[in-house]
Amino acid sequence: MLQSPFILLHASNWVDNNMAHLIQNVTSVMLIADRMRQQRFILEEMYANIRAAGTSMEQMRVLYGALRTTKAKSVLFTILHEIEPHYISKDIIMLA
């Protein structure tokens, strides 16, 4: 889905700008973590830390701590678009 540098940056910025909303509302954090681990955007230790966190909000905070690059953030955006599209604003979907 995401390929051009502009779209990657826009998706990454969207993830940054919506961090608080996502932390408070995303409940399928382990599904996201599973996919990010499978794509090697998070390592086993970070995956274990996410899994050990008590609530989905805590899990999402730990996951955010692993998102160091534009690419990793755009992967989170893509996964959210696939599994919980209601979190993604319509304006950015039109760019993809």
TrEMBL record:
SUPFAM superfamilies with a match to the protein in the record: DEATH domain (SSF47986)
Highest rank taxon of the organism: Eukaryota
One Pfam family of this chain: CARD
Cross-referenced InterPro entries: CARD, DEATH-like_dom_sf
Domain CARD: 13-88
GO biological process: regulation of apoptotic process
Signal peptide, first to last residue: none
Name assigned to this protein: CARD domain-containing protein
Organism of derivation: Seriola lalandi dorsalis
Species lineage: Eukaryota, Metazoa, Chordata, Craniata, Vertebrata
